[in-house]
Amino acid sequence: MHATVLWHTVDHMFIPVHVKAKHHWVLAVISFNHRCIYVYDSLSVVGHDAVVLTEIKS
């Protein structure tokens, strides 16, 4: 993204997030239009969601 792009013109921001406890990466997408954060994760393990949520919040 260029430094000259105005924030009100940005629709989505893609942020890779490293989940250190699981040695795993997830993709967080901040949607400015919908005012929410989408998390895309390919791993489905019991107790994994709580660890990912903690990383996203930090």
Notes on the protein architecture:
The chain has 58 residues and is α+β, with helices and mostly antiparallel strands. The protein has 1 helix and 3 strands, in the order βββα. It has one domain. A 3-stranded antiparallel beta sheet has the order 1-2-3. It is elongated and about 40 Å long.
What order do the helices and strands come in, and which of them pair?
Elements: E1 12-19, E2 24-31, E3 36-40, H1 48-57
Antiparallel strand pairs: 1-2, 2-3
Short key terms for the protein model shown above:
58 residues, three-stranded antiparallel beta sheet, 1 helix, 3 strands
The count of domains is 1
Please bin the fraction of helical residues.
Answer: 10-25%
Question: What spatial form do the alpha-carbon principal axes imply?
Answer: elongated
Along the chain, the helix and strand elements come as EEEH
Protein name: Ubiquitin-like protease family profile domain-containing protein
GO biological process, one term: proteolysis
Keywords: Hydrolase, Protease
Organism: Capsicum annuum
